[in-house]
Amino acid sequence: MPVLSYQLYSSRNFNDVQQTCAMLAALGYEAVEAYGGLLNDPEALVQAVTSSGLALPSTHVNLTDLEADPDRFIHLAGRLGIGTLYVPHIAADQRPTGGDGWRAFGARLDRAGAPLRKAGLGFGWHNHDFEFVAEDDGTIPMQAILEGGPDLEWEADIAWIVRGGGDPFDWLARYADRITAAHVKDIAPSGEKLDEDGWSDPGTGTMDWAALYEALRGTRAKVLVMEHDNPSDDERFAKAGVALHATQEG
């Protein structure tokens, strides 16, 4: 059964990481996923995670930071117990264009991850929506990234695939052997939850999570990460994530 985790970015506007981890442990989470800013104070993160009895199997990491000092992240992974690191984003003004550009970007990611893999860690890409929007030459960036970086793992953010116009079931089936984690988030019906950027608590929106959990069982995903990019109440969202996971994996 995949580990139930929580992307700490979801709670960035609420309590500090110590209080957030305590809340998550009380609700039944097994693990958390860090993001780049939290890695700047690893001791606080270690204290929050260990005192709550949680694990930290995965994290997000900035690509240029990783390229500049891979040894720093290898050390952090050992200190924090991280098994896999994912680059989560590239700013719009830095994105390549066309098939060759995106394949070259995949190759760049692959090179950045080489020292991590040599150290026994996993490394890959976490998607948003732009990777599923066709380029002028017909290229789908997500496909080109994985082609250019054949050793890359993929943390599939299912709801972002949908927002990008992709069919999540097709992507999960085609790249089952590359998907080692997934983000579980939900999309509100059109016109609803606008104060939360159109996201909904897991299991309360438009995503067919019963079918998606079944599809994820056919992948290598060993961590399922609950995430909401802009919840108005992070505890409410966290509880919904536990409830959805219990329903599908209980």
TrEMBL record:
Please tell me whether the keyword Cell division is annotated for this protein. no
Official protein name in the record: Sugar phosphate isomerase/epimerase
List the keywords (alphabetical): Isomerase
Instruction: List the Pfam families.
Output: AP_endonuc_2
Its domain of life? Bacteria
Q: Which residues form the Xylose isomerase-like TIM barrel domain?
A: 23-240
Report whether rRNA-binding shows up as a keyword of the record: no
| InterPro entries listed in its UniProt record | IolE/XylAMocC-like (IPR050312), Xyl_isomerase-like_sf (IPR036237), Xyl_isomerase-like_TIM-brl (IPR013022)
GO MF annotations for this entry?
isomerase activity
Q: What is the lineage of its organism?
A: Bacteria, Pseudomonadati, Pseudomonadota, Alphaproteobacteria, Rhodobacterales
